[in-house]
Amino acid sequence: MKLIRFFLAVAVIAVMFISVACEYVFIEPVTYTVSGEVKFSTDVAPVLNRECITCHNGNHSSGLDLRTDYSYASLQANNCVTAPAATSILIVHINADHHSDGITGEENAKMVSWIDAAAPNN
Ligand code: HEC
Q1: Residue 14 alpha carbon to ligand 1 centre in Å
Q2: Which of 24, 51, 76, 114 has its CA 20 to 30 A from that of 63?
Q3: Number of structural domains, the chain?
Q4: Residue 27 is part of which domain span?
Q5: DSSP secondary structure letter of residue 111
Q6: In whole angstroms, what is the distance from residue 75 CA to residue 65 CA?
Q7: DSSP class of residue 107?
Q8: pLDDT by position in tens, the chain (length 122)
């Protein structure tokens, strides 16, 4: 009888621990609101240059060159930044985790905003 009580006590304590461990923590998805004008020269080009030029460096098979001095012309020539941003080749690649792990949510939101503003060379 004592043994059964002991096991019951252990079971109750175990259930208490498990229910605490399984506490549901809701993580709000982070959305970024971009305010003000987004500039290609300061908000987009440096990010592409930082994240993408190990491959897109002028010798790449896709023909897309994302080095700072070449990225604007190359993105346009390859039709990568045509609005709406959500279906643009650039954002579709980035959102599909195409070697884009280092791009932050805020940087992504700025690129989207820039493309939806007709991708000016600003
Ligand atoms: C490890 C090499 C590598 C890296 C790093 C890389 N890419 Fe690519 N990328 C490729 C390859 C290979 C292709 C061609 C196949 C394809 O479309 O996925 C490509 C194609 C693309 C295309 C389509 C080009 C077109 O004309 O259709 C886009 C857009 C693109 N990459 C964007 C990026 C961006 C933005 C980054 C940086 C965040 C990046 N890539 C980093 C290898 C890479």
Answers
A1: 50
A2: 114
A3: 1
A4: 1-122
A5: H
A6: 8
A7: H
A8: 576 676 667 776 666 655 666 677 777 767 888 988 999 999 999 999 999 999 999 998 899 999 999 999 999 999 999 999 999 999 999 999 999 999 999 999 999 999 999 999 99
**85 Cα to the center of ligand 1, angstroms:** 17
Chain length of the chain? 122
Residue 53 burial (CB < 10 Å; 0-12/13-18/19+)? middle
Question: Which of these, 105, 44, 96, lies nearest to 71 by C-alpha position?
Answer: 44
Check residue 28 and report its DSSP letter.
P
Atom 34 of ligand 1, residue of closest alpha carbon? 52
Nearest atom of ligand 1 to the alpha carbon of 63: 26
Would you call 5 helix, strand, or coil by DSSP?
A: helix
For the chain, how big is the Rg over CA atoms in Å?
24
